[in-house]
# Entry
Amino acid sequence: MSAPRDCIACGLCQGRQNVVCPDGDPDSPVAFVGEAPGQKEDETGRPFQGRSGKVLDKLLEEEGVPRPSIYITNTVKCRPPGNRVPTKEEMAACLPHLEEELQGRRLIVALGRTAARDLLRREVRLSEELNRVIKVTIRGNEIDMVVTYHPAASFYNTRVKDALRETIRIARTYLEDRGSASSTGT
# Structure
């Protein structure tokens, strides 16, 4: 259950071109969750289509994880003006949709501090929680979660890609249990 294309639950509907719907395998045990759509995502209606998406796609490929084998979504489904961080009210409006999307997953990969904060409902320090498997309870179900950098952080810090590679390796183990990941990669 993603947000309906005619959603008006918060003010973000006023400036959007498209509700950005999830992408990838709806039955994947692994969900990658970003913060919010950017301009390219707003134009296409699909998550991670801009520069950050290109970084993510390249890293997934390098680590032997086909993008179609994972589920990709955002905490909010409409682009905030000026690419600002979504407000708590905007996140709350999308939360029922996100919680529904995450049901049945074995691993959630929170891409960035904002996505992690919204999912954990507390402040997050990436330096302390990076790539540690932690538990999150969503609608009464306990799901493993890994907090990592948003791919955009790699534009400013090249070491971020190494952390993201490690995150993808963790995700790959959850996919391999299901038989969804390719056998290539490290």
Summary: The domain at 11-176 is CATH 3.40.470.10 (Uracil-DNA Glycosylase, subunit E).
